[in-house]
Specification:
There is one protein chain. By secondary structure, the chain is of the alpha/beta class. Helices cover 16% and strands 28% of the residues. The chain has 4 helices and 17 strands. The strands form 3 sheets. A 7-stranded mixed beta sheet has the order 8-7-6-3-2-1-17. Strands 9-10-11-12-13-14-16 form a 7-stranded mixed beta sheet. β9 and β10 form a beta hairpin. α3 packs parallel to α4. The chain is globular.
Length: 256
């Protein structure tokens, strides 16, 4: 196991799925790893299977299908440690995942030398027509570097409390279709979030990966434009932030 913080890095796997390598530990967020999810089709090259190997934990922000894909989770192994929001544990355990830790905002859990803290998110977190009750959360991971994974959220006042010494903010800038519902950040509001958080690095996520079957041709702009609009607005609203737009499958170092 490597422990050199100079080797800490992040890989954008696609949509809200990100591989965080911190202090020799490997964390995967909201894994959606299949080529098809309900009415959505993956629009980019399939994920590199190495991004889902030897994981120390999976971080689940909420139970929506594009953040918790049960077949993808099962492909990681039912023994995989999962950290999830309140109300998600029963749903996951009933599907064969037994190592589940629920965290509410303000609570934390240590894995190796990394502290995983749950933070607020402004987003409905339940699942499906049976209305599985659960909250939505974000995560702040603290080791040699401090990383904020927003999951799905809109702006909220307490977001400003996370600022100060963030090395990285992973901010959603779109969704999986031509429109956005409530509880989401678009490029403009994500740039406002970057200004509030003032991280050293910001990486846009939740874009360019999934789109409804049959609509990808008419929705090409929504697959490619949001991160560039976010980057442009950050130059105006948060010029101190190093915005790095990663294509799905691309990685970058967290070193200064």
């Amino acid at each position: 196991m490597r422990t050199n913080s100079d080797q800490d890095q992040v890989t954008y796997v696609g949509h809200a799925t990100v591989l965080l390598e911190l202090g020799g530990l490997r964390f995967l967020t909201d894994p959606v790893l299949r080529s098809r999810l309900l009415h959505l089709r993956r629009q980019v090259t399939a994920h590199d299977e190495r991004s889902a190997a030897d994981l120390d934990a999976v971080l689940i922000s909420h139970l929506h299908h594009d953040h918790v894909d049960v077949p993808s989770l099962r492909g990681l192994g039912r023994e995989t440690a999962i950290v999830a929001p309140p109300g998600a544990g029963r749903f996951l355990r009933r599907r064969g995942f037994h190592d589940v830790t629920e965290l509410a905002p303000g609570e934390s859990h240590g894995i190796g030398g990394v502290e995983i803290a749950a933070v607020e998110a402004e987003h409905a977190g339940g699942r499906g027509w049976r209305s599985v009750g659960s909250d939505a959360i974000g995560f702040v991971l603290t080791g040699a570097h401090r990383v904020y994974f927003a999951g799905d959220t809109d702006l909220f006042d307490a977001m400003a409390d996370l600022s100060g010494d963030l090395d990285l903010a992973l901010l959603p800038v779109w969704g999986w279709g031509p429109t956005l519902g409530p509880g989401h950040l678009d490029p403009e509001r994500a740039a406002e979030a970057a200004a509030m958080l003032s991280p050293r690095i910001a990486i846009p996520i939740h874009w360019g990966t999934l789109f409804p079957v049959g609509l990808s041709r008419i929705g090409r702009r929504h697959l490619i434009a949001p991160p560039r609009e976010f980057e442009r607005r950050c130059r105006e609203l948060a010029p101190q932030v190093d915005v790095r737009v990663l294509d799905p499958g691309e990685a970058t170092s967290l070193s200064a």
